[in-house]
Amino acid sequence: MVRRHSFNAILELIESSANLEEIGEVLAQFRNLVDLDHVIYRWVDRSGSVSGCSTLPTAWQDRYSAMSYHRIDPVVIGCYTAFHPVDWRDLDWSARLASAYRKDSIAFGVGNQGYSVPVRGPAGQYAILSITKSCEGEVWDKFTQKHSRDLILLAHYVNRRALEFEVSYYPTPEQPLSMRESEALSLLAEGMSRARAAEAMAISEHTLRVYIEGARSKLQAQNTTHAVARAVTMGLIAT
What we know:
Blueprint: H1 4-15, H2 20-34, E1 38-44, E2 50-54, H3 58-66, H4 74-78, E3 86-87, H5 96-107, E4 113-120, E5 126-133, H6 137-165, H7 179-189, H8 194-200, H9 205-219, H10 224-233
Antiparallel strand pairs: 1-2, 1-5, 3-4, 4-5
């Protein structure tokens, strides 16, 4: 494991970070401390959106986003059902798109070895802390065995702090949405107007407004759009 006082300092810096950008700066310090290529924290919510921070080059981050690589990334997909750290060599890279993505990532300096710690939070939140390095397999095996406990602890510290200020996270409402409130928000999430949603529910627009306002209050949303976004993110309605 890394020197204990140095690692504890990293954890303290994470706890005092004010946003994801500052967490990214701390991850850079950890990368330098243990001689890695990159450290990546990715958050995937139930709506499928991805956010986070990393030490990755901006050019690769832009390409990853532009190519929607999170939809085919074996790390994002493979770690979803995992509860323990995953070595990237154990993931399925055989698909054509996955193989092409891997070659692309290496070309951008991501590293030929990778190791990920899946983390789960409330409201369906799912995150991954990954480390990468360009080295031989035997070297990588020794490294991950030596640092695995610290990596698990680091992942949970980063995720816990991110939950405290990540704008897409909201705790489950104290009062659950009623069936009609959920239905109203679901129809709006599909892009229906209030008139069409009311017609689909066989109610008046006035009654629909009552359901929407009830849901908005429970979700502590600023407006209807905000309420729909929160309900989707929290997994309370499907889209």
